[in-house]
Amino acid sequence: MKEPYKGLRPYEEADQDNFFGREVEKQILVDKILTNKLTLLFAASGVGKSSLLQAAVMPELKRPDRENLTVVYYNDWVEDPRVTLRNTLFKLLTATQPVSTSENLAEITTLPEFLRVATRFIPNQPLVIILDQFEEFFNYQRYSQYFLPFIQQLTQAILDHHTATVFVIAMRENFALELNAFKPELPTLLFENFYRLERLTIDNAKPAIVTPVTRLGFRYEDGLLETLVKDLGQQE
Amino acid sequence: MDRFGKAAEVVETHLVVEPPNLQIVCMQLWEIDKNNPQHQLTRAAYESQGRARGLLKNYFRKQIDQFSTTEKPLASAAVNYLVNKHGTKMAYPVGDLAKLLRVNVAALTKTLDKLEQARVLHFIMSQLQH
User: Fold this and answer.
1) How many CB pairs lie under 8 A apart between chains A and B?
2) Between residues 40 and 99 of chain A, which touch chain B (CB distance below 8 Å)?
3) Considering only CA atoms, which of B104, B88, B81 is closest in space to residue B115?
4) Domain tally for chain B?
5) Do you find a cis peptide bond into A126, omega within 30 degrees of 0?
6) Which pLDDT tens digit goes with each residue over B55-92?
7) Residue B85's domain spans which residues?
8) DSSP string, chain B
């Protein structure tokens, strides 16, 4: 039998039919992403940024009957992100649509230039680039040789309004001041458009508890749900 | 306590739920009752486990029990380096952390793998922040 809950693992795209309680947050975030070049998503650890992005926001942006966009999700900050992000983009683009070999996409090394060329091949614009767990970039790269060059390239890409891209940077809120590293290049744009994801309200927690088991033909005994959400709300 | 010495009541409309707590508790309730022929998650099971608090404790006890007596102090020491007292995660290459802890890389890797599998590090961080 299928498991109704994910435990402590984040919900992924494949879990979209089993992810509940974040409908409002999903819609707000999608609207922000579609109307801004850069969206910052902050939350405390464990609140569910990655789950919201992967199991709700990404599927919504990709919906064929809606925006039908190409979305890149990236969260690997251990190696040089100039290389690994570009490789991730390249793999996704070549896997999902025909990319002209005459453009020599594989040989372009800078992120802004790569995106300028790559966006010519996506069927619907903009290309959405989600940079999740961005605090890890500061954890791993703060003192590395890749730190400033990546910030410079990412900033150039964000400021390139001629290229059909939008960016989402998601990170733990206690790392927000680290974004000061972008301030010289992005003095105003950086905090123009941000969203703070909160913990689940009682009303949001109820569908997250009940709907996954309802889909399997189960129910919570009368009165148990109310007791459970109240108890969970009082846990620290 | 309020200014009249009366115990303050928790205003339920302001209660919020930590998603990891929800997952841990509901996952265990499901495990207990998933074969219930009436297809019902029961209050009896919930009460028998000590309600939400008891289920959270059970979960952590099970995770800790996976570590051998030699692994427990290593896991504890590693967590002390990887998560500071403010709940901020600190990144270390495994080799560097092994040197700091004066243990061999293989033993440390095995212990870190167990922590990761249990998602204990992530959860400890979320708990430390509240």
Assistant:
1) 138
2) 44-48, 51
3) B81
4) 2
5) yes
6) 999 998 888 888 888 888 888 888 888 877 666 667 77
7) 71-128
8) --TTSPPPPP-GGG-EE-HHHHHHHHHHHHHHHTT-TT-EE-HHHHHHTTHHHHHHHHHHHHHHHTS-TTHHHHHHHHHHHHB-TTS-B----HHHHHHHHT--HHHHHHHHHHHHHTTHHHHHHHHHT-
Q: Within this chain, do residues A191 and A220 fall inside the same structural domain, yes or no?
A: no
The mean pLDDT of A180-191, rounded to a whole number, is: 85
Check: CB of residue B6 under 8 Å from CB of residue A221: no
Residue A2 in any domain: the answer is no
Residues A147 and A213 in one domain: no
Evaluate if pTM is beyond 0.90. Answer: no
Among B65, B84, B106, where does a domain finish? B65
What Å distances lie between residue A44 and A111, A190, A199, B93, CA to CA? 29, 19, 8, 24
CB A163 within 8 A of CB A125: no
Rounded CA-CA distance A188/B64 in Å is 47
Nearest to A7 among B24, B86, B125 (CB): B24
- Sheet of strand A127-131: strand arrangement: A71-74, A127-131, A165-172, A38-43, A194-196
Q: How many CB atoms lie within 10 A of CB A63?
A: 12
Chain A: give the shortest CA distance to residue B126, in Å: 5
Q: Which amino acid is at B67?
A: F
DSSP, res A119: T
The β-bridge relationship of strands A165-172 and A194-196 is unpaired
State the CB neighbour count (10 A cutoff) for residue A142.
11
Contacts of A161 (CB under 8 A, 6+ apart): A37
Q: What is the ipTM of this complex?
A: 0.91
d(CA B2, CA A159): 52
Residues A161, A229: one domain?
Answer: no
* Residue B23 φ then ψ, to 5°: -65, -45
How close is the nearest chain A Cα to the Cα of B71, in Å?
Answer: 22
pLDDT for the residue B8: 52
